[in-house]
Amino acid sequence: MIALRQLAVSLAVATVALIALLGARPISRETIVAGYAIAVAAIGMAALTRAMRAARFDNPSPFEQQLTRERVPPGRPNELIRVERDLLLGTENAGHFHARLLPLLRGAAAARLSRHGVDLARQPEAAHRLVGDELWSFLRPDLEEAHDLYAAGPSVRAVRRLVERIEAI
After folding, report:
1. 20 to 30 Å CA-CA from 116: which of 47, 67, 97, 169?
2. DSSP label at 99?
3. Does residue 112 come out as left (phi exceeding 0), alpha (psi in the -120 to 50 range) or beta?
């Protein structure tokens, strides 16, 4: 709206100047009209340039949109969220501990034992010697499932001790 008002004022000033110059005739009429045509063309070009610049910023190209899009900060990895959830549920529920958290602990222990050339499933005696009695009571292959699956699982401290013991292998 402001651009249209500015255009109208500019054209009005140029027209008033044309009328004044035609009335005073300091130079020939053809020169005055030619100057008026150049002034109107310049005013039109300025208005067109302003309109194109405004349209460019109103509708950025897809390339510009990709450059200015908001960056999403990296979130926490899904695997970490899943392990945290399994840890929380495993300490609250013995059934979840045996079904979800214990296989994670066994997998981590098996990976650590493999550094010593010991297979958890095939060499249980050697694994028992390396992991100790407390950790072995959870890792042993003949471990029975809890009688009450809805009872509380081991505490977070107990699981932390198990993980620290696995890391020490």
Report:
1. 97
2. I
3. alpha
